[in-house]
Amino acid sequence: MHTRSRNFAQINPSSSTSFESPVLPTENNPKVPLSPAFNDTTSFSNYSSTTPPNNHQRYKDLLIFEERLKQNLHQLQRRSYKYEAFLGLNCLLLPILIYAVFFYESKNPTFQFFSKLFLFIAVTTLLMFFMKNIYAEKVRVATRFVPQCNRVLRQFNMHFNASGGEIVFYKKVPRKFQEGFERYRQMYYTKKSQRAKEREEKEKEKGNVKGKDKDI
Questions:
Q1: Residue ranges under compositional bias (Basic and acidic residues) (predicted)?
Q2: Residues 116, 101: contact at Cβ < 8 Å?
Q3: Looking at the chain, which terminus has fewer C-beta neighbours within 10 angstroms, N or C?
């Protein structure tokens, strides 16, 4: 990250650069890259009601960045849930297999063989899950994502609210800029909802036309 980036206020109003896709945080790369638009020298101290800067590109970049943060968080959470479900199932089967191998008396050699085989697989899988650090890389990374993002975003006077899935500004950011971004965000989601409804209506119309063709 650029060393001159000290404050969220440092944004070039004429910048046309969009945010790069945030990299998923890992142990070796815990930070989330921000747009080059944050590395300029224009300060919010020059922001006034008489000569407001063109904030459209700023709002667009922020919204793109916000959407990608949400997408990355949801992706990490889904992956975490899958591994947690797998780990939970393995832990649930383990005591059952231990009972079947060491305590349950069965004269069926096939049952004994598969019980021992599945017990070996379950124990090996559980050991590999922790020895290869899969738990930290696949499960815990989802819980560390938001704190790592906010450590980076704090120097830009904002943070990512995971529960709402939105970027929230600190008080240092001018109120007028915050309200402008809120309006831009609402307008974007309104248009997005309208486009989704239009697509659904078109699909329904196509379905009705195909149904009529079959009747003919």
A1: 195-216
A2: yes
A3: C
**Which phi and psi angles does 15 have, rounded to 5°?**
-70, 140
Mean pLDDT of 178-189: 92
Cβ count near 89 (within 10 Å): 11
Tokens 């697509």, residue located? 199
Q: Measured in whole angstroms, how far is the alpha carbon of residue 97 from the centre of its chain?
A: 37
pTM for the predicted model, two decimal places: 0.61
User: Could you tell me the maximum CA-CA distance found in the chain, to the nearest angstrom?
Assistant: 90
Give the pLDDT band of residue 165 (cuts 50, 70, 90).
confident
One-letter amino acid at 8 equals F
58, 16 contact by CB (below 8 A): no
HEC readout, 64-107: HHHHHHHHHHHHHHHHHHHHHHHHHHHHHHHHHHHHHHHCCCCC
d(CA 91, CA 93): 6
The predicted-structure confidence for 31-74, as pLDDT tens digits, reads as follows 444 444 444 433 444 444 433 456 888 999 999 999 999 999 99
CA distance 69 to 146: 9
Residue with tokens 């971004």: 181
Task: Give residue 147's pLDDT.
Answer: 92
Phi, psi of 66 (to 5 degrees): -60, -45
Of the two residues 34 and 186, the one the predictor is more confident about is 186
Helix (H) or strand (E) holding 212: helix 175-215
- Sorted by sequence, the CB contacts under 8 Å of residue 82 that are 6+ apart come out as none
Please name the amino acid found at residue 161: N
